[in-house]
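On clarity, I found the account of how folds are encoded harder to follow than it need be. For illustration, here is how one protein appears when written out as sequence plus structure tokens.
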Amino acid sequence: MNRFQQYLVVTDDIGLILRYISAGTCIPLIVAVIFGELDMIMPMVTVPVALFCIGSLFLELPRSDKDPKLSQALFAVATIWIICALVGALPFVFGAGMPYLDAVFEAMSGWTDTGMTMSRDVDALPETLIFWRTLMEWFGGIGIVAFSVAFLNRSSVSSLRLYSSERMEGKKDAYFPSAVEQGKNLWKIYLALTVAGTLLIYLSGVTLWDALNIAMTAISTGGFTIHNGGIGYYDNRLLEMLIIPVMIAGALPFKLYFLLHRTHKFRILEDDQAKLLFAIILAGFVLITADLLAFNKMDPFSAVVNGLFMASAAATSTGFQTADISLWAPVSILILTVMVFVGGSSGSTAGGVKLSRVMIGFKGIKWWFQRSFKSTKAVIPFRYNGKNIIKSEAELEVSRNMLTMVLFIITIAISMIAIMHFERPDIDTSLIIFDVISATCNNGISTGFVSPDMSAASKIVLILQMWLGRLEVMAVIVFFIGLIRGFEW
């Protein structure tokens, strides 16, 4: 098989998925009509047309009947994501006059659920573009591949591999008989959570339009807002408190909702990731609130509200902000940084290295130490989520998860060093460090460093970091290796 033929294994899947995504991207056209923004129809039409044409081009390529290897499935997922970001940028260029690089940053931030923006004035954007930002995060939260697999008219190994290569862990947690059936139920759950979140946030007194946009970006743990001031724009404490459970719902493992759907029991207290998520939010809330009282001299009520909201936004990787963290004490920013890096649950819409990896890493270290002090013949079980895992599988799982964490750290370090060379030397290094970690972990909380005034090189680095973080590094590495060397190596 020559190098070109290797790509033919996945081109059919890529083409189908891009076509299905193109249908979903027509939704903003309805918004343009509702708000009378007819001048936005042509800019928005570019997305579905371009995705459909690119998808059709992939489908016209010769087809291979071979099942894709894991590396080829990962290549396909990374390809879909970068195409969606490049095409998703077009409405910002034609509808808001944004430079293309800034528009790609905005689109990548949306599709990867990061929530950082290149828009100088969000309030001035047409409602159509406001909703386009929201929709990108909503689609990106559940995963482009998961969105598409629900409509694939087959349950082949090919589609299953593409699906499980994404973030929803379809291969490990097969709660339904096929990838197609699983995708359909996943979308039912996601829609139900979005509707429930919209109604809950609407109770705060905001308009239904605002509630819808906030709920869609909260359940997808994205973080885009429809005003320059973010959530702080509303100056509504009830709203802030009502957003918190929606953010948490998006950061919980979706397998809990699958089990709820099947057994009618919500086993949240039986899940290790869920328990750790609540523990981290509580710890972050206590520490940040104490720091705001001690160092920022904030009044107790404001300290409690800001501490709880920001801890929840950081731990769930949503990225909403009610405070300017550049004014916080360094120790408070450090606490927030750790929470941003860890992120939410595996099998959720959240970013970060994931709670499951942190738990497996700590359990693996403990397990290795226990084995080193015991006889080589002693059997030391590795337990995770209440189950014993055999030695060979445990070693592989621990190694794989630790590798991903190391790759996250390496890419963050490289990008920080690069950006520090691209920007003025007088910029506070701590601001760059936090924003790079936030971008890589698809969080979106910012110190203010990320802005349209960054150098073009820094924007490119952060675009790559958001892409790397969303696909958990390995898929993007496989993408570039596949382009350079092929898959037969």
User: Anything to note?
Assistant: The chain has a mean pLDDT of 88. The first helix runs from residue 3 to 24. The beta strands are 382-384, 387-389. The longest strand covers residues 382-384.
